[in-house]
Amino acid sequence: MTPLEIIAFVLIIVGIVKILVLAFNPKSWMNFAKGIWKTSALGIIYFVLAALVFYYLIQELTIIQILAVTAFVALLIGLQFARYSKETMTFVQKMIRNKKDVWSKNWLYILIWLILMLWGLKELFM
């Protein structure tokens, strides 16, 4: 299997397990998720995994293809969040309560997105 096939396989297995567990015992999934979200190194783990997946994606796809798939996934996530718009807006308002906090707490995330978008623009128009 290629690295991309392995990434897809892991996603498929985790997704199927999650759906089955949620169908039969949602509380057990929540207990599992709470344990993961309490991990102090979670941000570092996600960053490393994202960088690793991106490394393998960029070996076989263009940044434009990656951004297009990202748009598709963002729309699917938005579809789910739309069902919880009240809760989502409460969360977002809490996040942006202080302009300084928005930048100080999210600078890496914002920087990564800015780099990806500028890279995409460069590929499209240069």
Describe the structure.
This protein folds into two domains: 1-52; 61-126, no CATH class. The protein is 88% helix and 0% strand. The chain has helices spanning 3-24, 26-37, 42-60, 63-82, 85-95, 99-125. The longest helix is centred in the C-terminal third of the chain and has 27 residues, at 99-125.
- What would you call the structural class? mainly alpha
Order of helices and strands: HHHHHH
The proportion of residues forming helix, as a percent range, comes to over 70%
Q: Which spans of ≥5 residues are poorly predicted at pLDDT below 50? A: none
* Terminus-to-terminus distance: 35 Å
Mean pLDDT: 93
CA radius of gyration: 17 Å
Number of strands: 0
Largest sheet: none
Overall number of structural domains = 2
By DSSP (H or I, 4+ residues per run), the number of helices equals 6
Relative strand content: under 5%
Inertia-based shape: globular
Which helices and strands appear, and what pairs or packs with what?
Blueprint: H1 3-24, H2 26-37, H3 42-60, H4 63-82, H5 85-95, H6 99-125
Q: Could you write a compact summary of the structure shown?
A:
The chain is mainly α and 126 residues long.
Features:
single chain, 126 residues, mainly alpha, 2 domains
